[in-house]
Write a structure and sequence with these properties.
The complex is a heterodimer. Helices cover 70% and strands 0% of the residues of chain A. Chain A is built from 10 helices and no strands. By secondary structure, chain A is mainly α. Chain B has 2 domains: 1-41, no CATH class; 110-329, MetI-like (MetI-like fold). Chain B has helices at residues 2-17, 36-40, 44-83, 89-94, 110-141, 145-159, 162-181, 188-212, 216-224, 229-240, 242-258, 261-267, 284-291, 300-329. Chain B starts with a helix and ends with a helix. In chain B, 42% of the residues are buried. Classes of the chains: A mainly alpha, B mainly alpha. At the A-B interface, helix 1, helix 3, helix 4, helix 5 and helix 6 of A face helix 3, helix 5, helix 6, helix 7 and helix 10 of B.
Chain lengths: 297, 330
Amino acid sequence: MNSKKTNRIATGVIYFLVGIVILLLVGIIGNILISGLPHLSWHFLTATASSFEAGGGVRDQLFNSLYLLLLTLLISFPIALGAAIYLAEYAGDTWLTQLIRTTIEILSSLPSIVVGLFGYLLFVVQFGLGFSIIAGALALTFFNLPILTSNIEEAIKGVPQTQREAGWALGLSNWKTIRGIVLPAALPGIITGVILSAGRVFGEAAALIYTAGQSGSTVDYSNWNPFSPTSFLNVMRPAETLAVHIWKVNTEGIIPDVNLVSAATSALLVIVVIMFNFGARALGNWLYRRLTAAKIK
Amino acid sequence: MGKKKQDLQKVVEKAIAQQKVPHVKFKGIDPQDIDIARLTKPSKETRQERWGKGLTLLAIGLIGILIVAIIGFVGLRGLATFFADRVNVFHFLFTTDWNPSAGKEHVGAAAMIVTSFAVTLLAALLATPFSIAVALFMTEYESGRKVRLLQSVMELLVGIPSVVYGFLGLTVIVPAVRKIFGGTGFGILTATLILFVMVLPTITSLTVDAFKAVPKELRKSSAALGATQWQTIFHVVLRAARARIMTAVIFGMARAFGEALAVQMAIGNAVLMPANLVSPAATLTSQLTSQMGNTVMGTLPNNALWSLALLLLVMSLVFNFLVHLIGKKS
């Protein structure tokens, strides 16, 4: 067999494998959307979940997912921002920095079920928080921190060195330069990073089963007192999210329309993730244009 | 301190005596008036700098504490099986009798360990050729819109929650496997097929990075020697990127090994030594997810589950270590 023939065959094989992967991708996304979208009605979004009858919705789960996401970001963003600034601006090439980087890598590769169980051990049992939104948010913070930190670090490193030098030349301290020059310049990237990590958090279930719990208590959306047990703002109530809901109805559920509910919820999750993915880039680009005179490269 | 202050005083006096800028008049100022203490104190900028650095270091420290806490807590709980309940470590690792509520003689996790490794290895084996093909397609064969499109779909695939994959597996792959291979449809094969899709984007994106890191000159010199595109890819690009492809595969395996819900929904959850690819089995993660809620804290069945969690943690550390080892070698 001569080399030209081998080349042709190899190219053919590669294009064939890529074709299979593309079919697979289209099949998966198509399947989720086609089987789920028809059932995704206003009723489904606004009705409460039923425990044994058909025709329930996901109102509380949807709210819980969003609320949990918001809390997680509120807790993890400041820590991740600080850590990222340190790594991008201050950290030298020492053994300590290496150790920190390794630590973050380990944290990011931990199985989410291990993170969830740790959350259960520490927050639910040790701190006595019980199955609650706040315990879930704290566990998700663990899950979110390494991703968020490396995303923000990338964004900060993307700011040209000349901008920092300009700040120093004006006599600003390093910290003032970071706060006044580097962070605003990195803002589009930071926001993109935050939204991308939000997509991951939104669909996470394994870390939540044993922290935020699997049951939804009765929620009253007109009760704005965050300390009242029925208030939707109460962080001490157990809460089931969309992803946990899919898992639960499929493994333990007894409702007759399991497939229908799961398909619609899956479609909802995937749509939100798509929105996060494209929204992050669109918003990042828009901010970049607004904040700087430069065109995106 | 006295000596230092005197020295400074001298410097100030000298500077005034020698001043060369005529329009700044120091004549009226007595050297004694110059506040040395204020001059030698850290400036506002320095204080800001210290504050900022301290704050960011605090954040880093917090992350460090988190990881130590995770390893500490899970380790302590997981080791209780061996220290408090006196289960033999080798017994735990190499026997297949799993029924912890029946006593310490029945704590053998081998079936789950084997299943976990089986699905991980099979998924990685299946995904690697596809990943390499897609990565080659994206770096060597095509460029521009097609690549960007494929890349955004891959990113989307990473973003799809694992329970959605589990649900897809339950409604699409399980019936298909049942029809084609018989059995219940639950088992290692089904779990492998789901994990294959889940690790594919991870391995692919890291492999793309690996190919992009190969210098253009190598390809050009190979082409200049008259090699065909495939010869260049096979003998130059793949070889140069070998170590990084290996790390990509290990990252994929780490993801597959730790994946819980999708696997749990599709594998059947029977703690048996897997006899074939289509009989129900259980992985470490699936057993943990489904049983943790059914045991009482501090009892042997509960401790045994924590030992499974510890095993997962240790494996995750091992995968990390392997990545570093390969990275250092290349």
